[in-house]
Amino acid sequence: MQFSVLMSVYKNELPDHFNACFASLEKQTLQPNEIILVVDGVVSSDLYTVIKKWNERLNLKTIQLNRNVGLGSALNIGLQHCQYKIVARMDTDDVCVSTRFEKQINFLLENPEVCVLGTAVREFDETMSFSLGQRVNPLHYEEIKEMAKKRNPFNHMSVMFKRDMICSVGGYLHHAFMEDYNLWLRVLASGYKVGNLVEPLVYVRAGRSMIQRRKGLVYISSEYKLFKLKLALGLDNRFMASYIFILRASARMLPTKFLSKLYCFFRK
């Protein structure tokens, strides 16, 4: 089965992390037919050097944007350039287990009704030296739909999806920090079947700086937008959606120390 990989990079990415990401793609037991990389605005010369290096070794197709448009908009642009019906997402600072694509493609071949397939991920500190635990989501459709009322049911950097079905619900939309959660809610509301694999097939850089970014008024504003979307799609009733919004918004105001403990609670 032929497939594309969809990525977006912007100026704050570290070249070493970016390089490690591409190295993990080169080691895949099942190679993608193309890698669509959206360069979201002007980036450093060091990042362009990494792109040039891997352009010669991977089937890399680069789309340069004149200005930074944000992850959701950048991915939607990249999605229009994906030639194949199956698209795998990848973040530019994470690392794939060598069998990731092979295992996801095999599952989709055996379960053709599935539109979106995620996996568990293993989280590390920013140097990839210390494991912080695993993030495992529900495996089956009904459990995933129920979890989506409370929190994101997929690890975005691990998903593989069917391009046409994603485009049919509007693709990625701009929704600060939550463009993927927004998309999954629309997928679930449309009745498409989804699933997760229990095995961690992506290694993710997490740590304190990641948690610090998930705080503040901008995040609370995004939580409110998410709350309204759940109501508009009929995925939850107003009472429960309001309750979940208050819990999620309150967490965004916690000190980093306590927010870190909350994130650890949801890890294995």
The secondary structure category is alpha/beta
Poorly predicted parts: none
Q: What would you call the shape?
A: globular
**Residue share in β-strands:** 15-25%
* Termini Cα gap: 33 Å
Helical content (DSSP H or I, runs of 4+): 40-55%
Oligomer: single chain
What is the count of helical runs?
A: 11
What is the gyration radius calculated from CA atoms?
Answer: 18 Å
Secondary-structure map:
Blueprint: E1 3-9, H1 15-26, E2 34-39, H2 45-55, E3 60-64, H3 71-81, E4 86-89, E5 95-96, H4 100-110, E6 114-124, E7 131-135, H5 141-147, E8 160-162, H6 163-168, H7 179-189, E9 193-205, H8 208-213, H9 217-233, H10 238-251, H11 256-265
Describe this structure in words.
By secondary structure, the protein is an alpha/beta fold. It contains eleven helices and nine strands. Helix 9 packs antiparallel against helix 10. The longest helix has 17 residues.
